[in-house]
């Protein structure tokens, strides 16, 4: 495969005046979207219209190209990279993560098949999955069933987080990772995610509305402004009686500067 592969990736991401519409639609979803994430920093995205967060992930993973504008990784246009290599630099946890009909350890190893058992255990611990894995009938060799049907929703998501962390990606993408879970399952996943990042300690939050960024700043700064973000947080807390529910509607991106070829957070 042709395309650019960097010997060392820092992980800086920049959206530069991006205009985008899905091929089957005429209306632009993004109109001049611009933001950046420095290497080693984290970004949370709040989308007031509910249609842009997952699209940003699709653009980052090169499932689509911008209509106009550029998306840069360490200063290079994403379209210049070898696609397989580019996607290997990213770890993604979706709203409903898919597992394969094999053992739980083999599912986690899909993140990095060259990893040893010690690395798998460390990833499982970081994802708050190790204890439930140990309690399964055959431990890490327990068969999860097609699509992970032998596990609960929360267990599936924690296994998916472990898989993403095992890859040790330059960019970690969390796309509403608890939105499809019931309250009990959500608690276990929220604990895992809080070990990685929380809305209060992300470096930057951007608020999207009508195709562009309408607010940008840290949690405390945006709360003080009492604008769209502050209203959103009040509604979420009122709905869920805690800040746990906030993660249901967020996409969090975390990048990291590393010293080797494929390293991360």
UniProtKB/TrEMBL annotation:
GO terms for cellular component: mitochondrial inner membrane. It is found in: Membrane. GO terms for biological process: oligopeptide export from mitochondrion. Residues 13-235 form the ABC transporter domain. Keywords: ATP-binding, Glycoprotein, Membrane, Nucleotide-binding, Repeat, Transmembrane, Transmembrane helix, Transport. PANTHER family: ATP-BINDING CASSETTE TRANSPORTER, ATP-DEPENDENT PERMEASE MDL1, MITOCHONDRIAL. This is ABC transporter domain-containing protein. It comes from Carnegiea gigantea.
């Amino acid at each position: 495969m042709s395309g650019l592969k960097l010997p060392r990736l820092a992980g800086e991401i920049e959206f530069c005046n991006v205009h985008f519409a899905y091929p089957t639609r005429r209306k632009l979803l993004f109109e001049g979207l611009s933001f950046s994430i420095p290497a080693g920093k984290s970004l949370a995205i709040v989308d007031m219209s509910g249609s842009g967060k997952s699209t940003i992930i699709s653009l980052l993973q090169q499932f689509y190209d911008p209509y106009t504008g550029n998306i840069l990784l360490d200063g290079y246009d994403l379209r210049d990279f070898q696609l397989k290599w580019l996607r290997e630099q990213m770890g993604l946890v979706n709203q409903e993560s898919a597992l394969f009909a094999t053992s739980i350890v083999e599912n986690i190893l899909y993140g990095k098949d060259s990893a040893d058992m010690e690395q798998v255990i460390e990833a499982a611990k970081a994802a708050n999955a190790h204890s439930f894995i140990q309690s399964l009938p055959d431990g890490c060799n327990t068969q999860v069933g097609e699509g992970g049907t032998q596990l609960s929703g929360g267990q599936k998501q924690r296994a998916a987080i472990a898989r993403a962390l095992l890859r040790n990606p330059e960019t970690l993408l969390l796309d509403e990772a608890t939105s499809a879970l019931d309250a009990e399952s959500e608690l276990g996943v929220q604990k895992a995610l809080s070990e990685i990042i929380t809305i209060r300690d992300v470096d930057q939050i951007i608020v999207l509305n009508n195709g562009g960024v309408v607010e940008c700043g840290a949690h405390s700064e945006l709360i003080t402004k009492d604008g769209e973000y502050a209203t959103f947080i009040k509604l979420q807390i009122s709905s869920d009686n805690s800040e746990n529910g906030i993660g249901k509607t967020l996409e969090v991106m975390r990048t990291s500067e590393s010293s080797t070829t494929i390293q991360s957070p």
